[in-house]
Amino acid sequence: MATSKKQVNKSIATELPYNADAERVVLGMAMLSKDYCLDILTSLEEDDFFLGKHQMIFRAISTLAEISDVDVLTVAEELDKLKELENVGGAQYLAECTNTVVASSTLNFYIRIIQDNSVLRKMLLAIREIDNEYKTQEIENINDFILASETKFKESISKRHISTFKLTSEIAPEVEQALSKLEDAENDSDVIGVSTGYERLNQITQGFKPGEMIVVAARPAVGKTALVLNFAYNIATKSKKAVAIFSLEMSKEQLFNRLVAMSSLYDAKRINSGRIPSASDRVKVMNGIKEIADSKIYIDDTPSIKLNDIVTKATKLAAHEPNLGLIVVDYLGLVQVASKGGRTPDSRQEEVRRISLALKALARDLNVPVIAVSQLSRDVEKRDSKRPVMSDLRDSGNIEQDADIVMLLYREDYYAALKKENAAANKKGSQLTNSEKYELAKEKKEKELGAEIPGDASYTEVIVAKNRAGQTGTVRLFFYKNYLKFSQPSKDWEDAMNAIAEE
Q: How far apart are CA 339 and CA 166, in angstroms?
């Protein structure tokens, strides 16, 4: 006689590990004591129980815990209301559960048995699912299949971790130890994490700290990718840390050429075209290539990469590269979110929420700062003031919430051709507002102090709009567009700008 699919599934299910006695003990303890019940509800989930009747009892207990007391009587009433009381064995079975009483000190032992069996079941089911997909589905790209399988397996063995309270007396030694390490560190006193390479930015951010998610945002062509590459270059060549870059827009060759332009201070367009006329210039470029080659910068240029692949690849790299100092995702808007439970995200906002949460979790899990590049919406160009604010972030809600640091870029020359600014510049001195007078005076001083700056320098403001761990503020940098390099202005320039601001 042929075996039905239902029978096969039932056979597979009975092979999975579980401990009915442990499940019964834990449910009985939950119905005996409010304290036990809270411990159990914060340690287990419904699908941690294998037997269907135990899942139903746990569901009833969870529902009741939010609205009333939990005991055999109230659980029986709740199950009766759900038409499930007889399916779990009636009130008699609930009483049997509570009769199996154990010492409170052993409750965690039984909870751990249930958790371990739950994780083992999920792991075995994931293995079987992967095996079934391999046997029954056409695999177009073996590498994608391996990465997806690796992610599926990792998710199957991960277990929800509920942290417990800690007394401040327990936390104090950890903080003291961390402070001692900082005092002994050889880096700049303002820097706790890895140095950005810019003194003023370090003063505001204290560097990029392990576990932080940093968002760098601007309108297209303002220089956000260039700034992030400057951070990567500084961390790799000066701090001697490894850097991972997920480049969704540019190829690895384009990215490498940009890094060489920064290193050699040679025109990026000439490097891209291969037109390097003089021997001395070729030496500069070759030295730049050597410096980049000698640094530990890992580049993945998979276009439209999936979110799970970013997490998997970064985790694998961190396991083999203990000196990993930074992860860059350029840019957030191109990351693909795979369907979850067979359903695609309902909206772009939901996609961004999942990406943002995943990148923040990645930063914390690996204890490495993660920079996510993002675009600003067109709303910034509709206002009189073109300086961006956090609400200009595209799909900004979750990014604002999850990010530890948000940097917004503003370049005056980007908006130089707009009519309103041109009209203000043509007014007579007596007609100028105080704000317009400040802008003109600043522009004049910039030209005086920056007249000898090579490389088509552009004045750029890096606005630190959010900093969970410290202050916010604006950092002034020069963007040498020919070299794609950001540099700090001189102290004279900074002092002059500060003097104008105080007028």
A: 38
Domains and CATH numbers, the chain: 5-157 (1.10.860.10), 199-415+450-502 (3.40.50.300)
Rounded distance between C-alpha atoms, residue 310 and residue 53, angstroms: 39
Does residue 254 sit in helix, strand or coil?
helix
Record the pTM: 0.66
CB 312 within 8 A of CB 366: no
Candidate from 97-101, 175-179, 279-283 with smallest mean pLDDT: 175-179
Give the separation between CA 425 and CA 271, rounded to whole angstroms.
37
DSSP structure class, residue 395? T
- Residue 375 host element (H or E): strand 370-375
pLDDT at 435: 56
The single residue of 84, 133, 249, 494 carrying the catalytic annotation is 249
pLDDT per position as a tens digit, 13-39: 558 999 999 999 999 999 988 888 888
249 is catalytic: yes
Judged against a pLDDT cut of 50, whether residue 9 lies above it is answered with no
> From the CB of residue 451, how many other CB atoms can be counted at a distance below 10 Å?
7
Coil, helix or strand for 431?
A: helix
DSSP-derived secondary structure for 109-175: HHHHHHHHHHHHHHHHHHHHHHHHHHHHS--S-HHHHHHHHHHHHHHHH-----PPP--HHHHHHHH
| Cα distances (angstroms) measured from residue 177 to each of 137, 168, 469 | 53, 14, 19
